[in-house]
Amino acid sequence: MNTSKLAAKAVALGPLILVAAMAYAAQYGLRGIGLLISPIALAMIVGMLAAAVVSLPKAMGKDVGDVSKLILRWGIVLMGLQLDLHRIATTAGPAIPVTLVTTGATIALFWWLGKRMGVSGALPILVAIGTGICGAAAIVAASAPARARDEETGYALGVITLCGTVALFAEPALMGVLGLSERAFGFWVGASVHEVAQVVAAAFAGGPVAGEIGTVVKLTRVVWMAPALIVVAILLRRAEGADAKGGKVPLVPWYVLGFLAMAAIGSVAQATTGLPGWLRPAMQWVAVAFFVVALAGVGLGLKVGQVLAFGARPLVLAGLASLFIALTTLAWVKIAGI
Q1: Longest dimension (CA), the chain
Q2: C-alpha neighbours within 13 Å on the C-beta side of residue 304
Q3: Across residues 233-261, what is the average pLDDT?
Q4: Among candidate residues 267, 229, 301, the one with its CA nearest the CA of residue 69
Q5: Cβ distance 199 to 218 under 8 Å?
Q6: Dihedral sign, CA of 3, 6, 12, 14?
Q7: In angstroms, what CA-CA distances link 124 with 144, 166, 335?
Q8: What is the dihedral of CA 142, 275, 270, 228, to 10 degrees?
């Protein structure tokens, strides 16, 4: 990359950082009134609103898109460091096979159902994988192998954020009604709520034991992101055929390998020398900040009309998928007597 192109990419960071800062400010304000909404989704919304007021020059718009995609992929790599595989196996052992089954079933069933409902383009797989794994992070990670348009990614983020917010308030309210112990409640929240931050907030509402278990069970679901993306890439590769325009979907995206490598490195280091207590929280903050900046770029490239044009069907699909994973994991908790 020559000096002029590099300088243009650096300039493109300006609008991204500005929108990201506004998203964090919006999250802080919403938290003050009791709403916990991911800054990732807010960055996209703020970016869309900014794009409705000020249009970026065409050349800068392309640079913003390129830079945001690169930052997004590095955010996925850094997210791998959050996974302590030994801790997951010892604390949430029973959740490993169950989250694998429920995650796989949610993705397969609602990918298929979305197509049958007439939900267009990449939206069925984005909604399904966002519900099954970890909300916004899974959606943006799947957007590349799914060849999703920015407006599809934006709509999927919106409906998954909405459904996750409903679950954030509904599940703690149902803890006493359903007669769930702290341990059982933690397992249920971790296995069913979408965003990691939403899981932490909802699970700790049930007590410290619920909070610890819910967080680890949620990270167990995050483990399945890499295998799910690989399977999706393989299936889409086959569906494209040999004559696909623009080249085939990569079999294993480089950022998925990076995610796995970071998970392995972090787990081995924790089990041997131990990691500094500040490292994982710091890297989590950095990874989320990368996602926020990247989604600011997505929002800046969107128009509200493009997103609303998809209609209500993807929202219905997301609601059904969220209800499915909540009911199946609740049944597991009850039947297993956790």
Answers
A1: 63
A2: 8
A3: 70
A4: 301
A5: yes
A6: negative
A7: 14, 20, 30
A8: 0
Alpha carbons 30 and 39: distance in angstroms, whole number:
10
Spatial contact of 110 and 93, defined as CB atoms under 8 Å apart? no
pLDDT in tens, 8-60: 677 778 888 888 999 899 888 888 877 777 787 788 888 888 888 877 777 77
Q: How far is the C-alpha of 24 from the C-alpha of 157, rounded, in Å?
A: 17
Residue with tokens 């009911």: 327
As a residue count, the chain comes to: 338
Are the CB atoms for 248 and 239 separated by under 8 Å? no
Question: Which candidate, 248, 286, 312, places its Cα nearest to that of 82?
Answer: 286
List Cβ neighbours of 329 (8 Å cut-off, separation of 6 or more).
98, 102, 187, 188, 191, 192
* Residue 72 DSSP code: H
Residues 135/195, Cβ–Cβ less than 8 Å: yes
DSSP state for residue 90 in the 8-state scheme: H
Q: What is the DSSP letter of 81?
A: G
Q: How far apart are CA 223 and CA 252, in angstroms?
A: 16
What secondary structure does DSSP assign to 108-135, as a single string? HHHHHHHHHTT--TTHHHHHHHIIIIIT
At 179 the three-state DSSP class reads coil
- On whether the CB atoms of residues 23 and 43 are closer than 8 A, the answer is yes
d(C-alpha 107, C-alpha 262), whole Å: 25
- Return the DSSP state at 243: T
Please tell me the distance from the alpha carbon of residue 108 to that of residue 224, in angstroms, as a whole number: 14
CB 79 within 8 A of CB 287: yes
Report field, pTM of the whole predicted structure over 0.90: no
Show the tokens assigned to 219: 């990270």
- Which DSSP state fits 80? G
What does the block give as tokens for 322? 């969220």
